[in-house]
Task: structure prediction
Amino acid sequence: MVLRVGIDITPLVGPPTGIHQHTRHLTDALLSRDDVTVSGWLLSARGRKPRFAGPIRRSPIPASPAARLWARGSWPGRRTIAGAVDVVHGVNFLAPPAGTSVVTIQDLTPLTRPDLVELTVAAKAPAIRRILDSDAWIHTSSQAVAAELADLGRTERVRVIHHGLRPPAPTEPGTGAKVAGFDRYVLVLGTTERRKRVPVIISAMAAVDDDIGLVIAGPAGNDEAAIDRAIADTGLGRRVHRLIAVDDAARDALVRDATVLVLAAGYEGFGFTPLEAAAVGTAVVATAVGALPELVGDLLHLADPADTDLGPLLAAACEDPTVPMALTTRLQDLTWTAHADAMVELYRLAANS
Result:
């Protein structure tokens, strides 16, 4: 039986965050299958159309009103927002709180650390609580978030399915260095959110050679002011290159040519960037957050998420930027095809609820 799946593709309209990546690569993998039909729904009645090869339905109810309604009840239901489908998948916390919904909870910052996120994200907390109290199926990408859900009392209908990876595409050697503006550089990749602790990385740059630059690449988040202060306080201005708009080609080149990629996050749901970097042999310094401990903790030394001095680890990685072959080999198993296989199994459970 062909399963009809409606997926929230609203994240595809926004910047290339982790949720954007998940939505993009999952839908691409699902659209290539013959056992499901996939349509997209947008929690927006207007605005530009995202890149999506399937049919698109615009919800008559925008995201903010829908979140407020779902915090109190189950309307609007799946047919109102997605049409004639068997199951709906909310990839960004939001979906009707019902048994035929699959809701991806990438992390629990709106509930546990609202101070770390934008107000629009924190405002989703009541709708998330309603999901936890409902019969909806919950997908998360790490055992760490599943443990948090258990602490909040939600253990039933929770499935941990790791995301896939899109290893950076091969590029002409030196392309990343040209984009970076440095022959050797430390790379920070992603939206500059408070939970990423980019100022900690800026402070750690004092421990590495002066010819090594720092590239901060990704959309502006809620920690830009603190980052600017940290750069001024450390006097690193000439060694820092800030790139806000980075396309796939530039991103891939930056990752491949980086001396070290750093993730200093105090909290994370999965941890795309260090995994993608390690998959192509780029050295990584990262904290023990998200899925990193369960996926690579036995092969990669991970810093305590509370540690504010990453200088020694960063200096060591810059001195010897090698990645264990066992690590790159293991990460080859994290494919979007495998992720889609597991998600389809979950969709069938929800459709038969």
